[in-house]
Amino acid sequence: MTEGSVSRAGPASRSRLLPTLLVLSGPIIVSQFAQMANGVVDVVMAGNLGVLTLGAIAVGAAVWTPMMIFLLGLLYGMTPAIGARLGEGDPAGVAGIVLRGVVVGVLGGALLGLALSAGCGPLFRAVGVAPELIPEATAYLQWVALALPGMGLFLAVRFTLEAHRAPAMVTVVIVVGVLAKIWLNDAFVHGHAGLPALGSAGFGAATAAVSWGMALALMGVTRTHGAVRYLWQRPPRIAELSLARIVRFCLFGLPIALNFLSDYLVMGVVSVFIATIGAVAIGAHQIAFNILMVMLMIPTGLSMAATILISRSAGGSDRASLRPLMAWTMGLAVVSSLAMAAGLAAFDAEVAGLYTQDPAVTALALDLLWVVALILTVDVVAIALGFFLRGLGDPGSPFLIQLGVHWLFSLPLGYALCFTDWIVAPLGPIGWWYGLSAGLIFTGLLMALRLRLRMAGSPVPAGAAHGAAE
């Protein structure tokens, strides 16, 4: 594929929208599950080594995971920006976005890594982490700090490939990475295959090795894959990395980064408050939250795929496909969520039994799972609407809507329902879930209104979809 062969063709003719959406979303969904498995692998293997190791990995992950989420959101702006440029047939614009994404990913990851390496010890002591956990958690994070630039490079290349509708190799690399992580965890922790025995820090060393390995593997893919090989045929221009362009790139992705980070922090706040009630409450909450996250993987993957196609259509070539594309995506997401909710309602006891056999935890978890089943479709609709808006070059609206609803409505309502009699008698942990559910309904309504206003006028305001590319 040459530079000149990048065409203005839209995602597909309207008769092929559904097959195109399904083919594109399939690998993305698998990638989402594989990335979730990557974290589960560490928890399961650390748990088998004892409470101290599990605690060190858990407290370490609580520090570096928000950093990774922020970096992911900052770079995700590449997806709609590249899609819009592809829709316009502008390979030079695409190359500039990719170059800035790689630089921001590596340098941003390096800066976050430096902050993590220098600040984790003082942070642990300041917040009162148990002294016996600090040495192992700090050693673990020193290695994770080396992984963050690799994660940034991987994410930049991943979003480049996915924006070019070439997600399959991303999925292959992520799945292989999970398998490699299992082996490397064991090797670095215990010192197999000539590697040093690092104990708890071995999980961080494995994270660093796998992160850089996946990043370099995807870079190799870009040299050979027909959809993106043209990017190597054009020497980079220093002007593409001007301070003004880097700043605009970051400003375009910043609302997405803050949006993702806010969602993570909201659930962290809820977990902390529920933990004050006791072990049974937080155990049941974590079970329900984990099940919800698993059930959101498929609808989220569909919405991410739709963002790629929407951004390319909105680039100017095929705006007539925007509404049917959104309709197909929303329909598939809603149908899948209803099917999963029905399955959860029918087999809630069996699902909860996969996590615990404690009668008290199970009983509370079953109550929370009914809320999950009832609200799942509303959550899916809100997620899809947010990705639609991002695909149209409007990352700020989902951020502002969710920020306001979460912090000004959902959390205060959840607190009142859980702990006070201001509205009804205190409901305990389920009150938080009612508060979050009400917030999701409010969020969905506001996002639907915003999308309707956007579609009623020009679907993409001048320059918005290109904020990362100018």
From TrEMBL:
<protein>
    <submittedName>
        <fullName>MATE family efflux transporter</fullName>
    </submittedName>
</protein>
<feature type="transmembrane region" description="Helical">
    <location>
        <begin position="49"/>
        <end position="76"/>
    </location>
</feature>
<dbReference type="InterPro" id="IPR050222">
    <property type="entry name" value="MATE_MdtK"/>
</dbReference>
<feature type="transmembrane region" description="Helical">
    <location>
        <begin position="139"/>
        <end position="159"/>
    </location>
</feature>
<keyword id="KW-0813">Transport</keyword>
<keyword id="KW-0812">Transmembrane</keyword>
<feature type="transmembrane region" description="Helical">
    <location>
        <begin position="238"/>
        <end position="258"/>
    </location>
</feature>
<feature type="transmembrane region" description="Helical">
    <location>
        <begin position="97"/>
        <end position="119"/>
    </location>
</feature>
<dbReference type="InterPro" id="IPR002528">
    <property type="entry name" value="MATE_fam"/>
</dbReference>
<dbReference type="GO" id="GO:0015297">
    <property type="term" value="F:antiporter activity"/>
</dbReference>
<feature type="transmembrane region" description="Helical">
    <location>
        <begin position="166"/>
        <end position="184"/>
    </location>
</feature>
<feature type="transmembrane region" description="Helical">
    <location>
        <begin position="291"/>
        <end position="310"/>
    </location>
</feature>
<feature type="transmembrane region" description="Helical">
    <location>
        <begin position="430"/>
        <end position="449"/>
    </location>
</feature>
<dbReference type="Pfam" id="PF01554">
    <property type="entry name" value="MatE"/>
</dbReference>
<dbReference type="GO" id="GO:0042910">
    <property type="term" value="F:xenobiotic transmembrane transporter activity"/>
</dbReference>
<feature type="transmembrane region" description="Helical">
    <location>
        <begin position="264"/>
        <end position="284"/>
    </location>
</feature>
<feature type="transmembrane region" description="Helical">
    <location>
        <begin position="196"/>
        <end position="218"/>
    </location>
</feature>
<keyword id="KW-0472">Membrane</keyword>
<feature type="transmembrane region" description="Helical">
    <location>
        <begin position="325"/>
        <end position="347"/>
    </location>
</feature>
<dbReference type="GO" id="GO:0005886">
    <property type="term" value="C:plasma membrane"/>
</dbReference>
<feature type="transmembrane region" description="Helical">
    <location>
        <begin position="368"/>
        <end position="389"/>
    </location>
</feature>
<feature type="transmembrane region" description="Helical">
    <location>
        <begin position="17"/>
        <end position="37"/>
    </location>
</feature>
<keyword id="KW-1133">Transmembrane helix</keyword>
